[in-house]
């Protein structure tokens, strides 16, 4: 594998396999990891990839933004980070090839949004999801979640601060299937074979046609999502709101996660 210390990258036969590799902090997204993810998505687009897989090292898929150095941030630097992750999530959502997320353990905040941005979503036993951004006034990923599970369910989860367990994720369609840890490589091989069966041009054309049927939001919807995010994150006191929420909910914003 290549990539960076925080993001392992494997490439073979048009399949790009990305592994978040910050297990000591629950694979929380620091600026370097967000930048690396974005670069790999853009490179996969340029190279006409057939499939991109997003997975993780350690016990958790992704526990959201790495805010362990929150004291060094300002409202403006936090806004810039949120904009960059939204840009990355939109690039994944709109990729002209299948994107597969394999979640394990906890997926929190931007980590849950990363899972939602992928078109094919698998979970391992014991996975759970939390969407806490609204607790500090942030609107990030709401439309993508609603597109998957419906507006009412998305609003219920976000406004109620729900922890979505594996069974609820499967029943709602947030997750498409659950696989065992021992079945990961076999399931990935099967998905890879499907992605490589047709010639490249036909594969991409069929995928994009199917994707357009799945989503009626398109670029206009993406633009509104970005505007909503910027408007919510631009409210004065973002850093203070996040700090207050972290203090009240240390289990949601862990500094470390073995």
Automatic annotation (TrEMBL):
A GO biological-process term: fatty acid beta-oxidation
CDD domains: crotonase-like (cd06558)
Keywords assigned: Lipid metabolism, Lyase, Plasmid
Molecular function GO labels: lyase activity
InterPro entries documented for this protein: ClpP/crotonase-like_dom_sf, Enoyl-CoA_hydra/iso
One Pfam family per UniProt: ECH_1
Lyase keyword on record: yes
Superkingdom in the source lineage: Bacteria
PANTHER family: (7AS)-7A-METHYL-1,5-DIOXO-2,3,5,6,7,7A-HEXAHYDRO-1H-INDENE-CARBOXYL-COA HYDROLASE (PTHR11941:SF169), ENOYL-COA HYDRATASE-RELATED (PTHR11941)
Protein name per UniProt: Enoyl-CoA hydratase/isomerase family protein
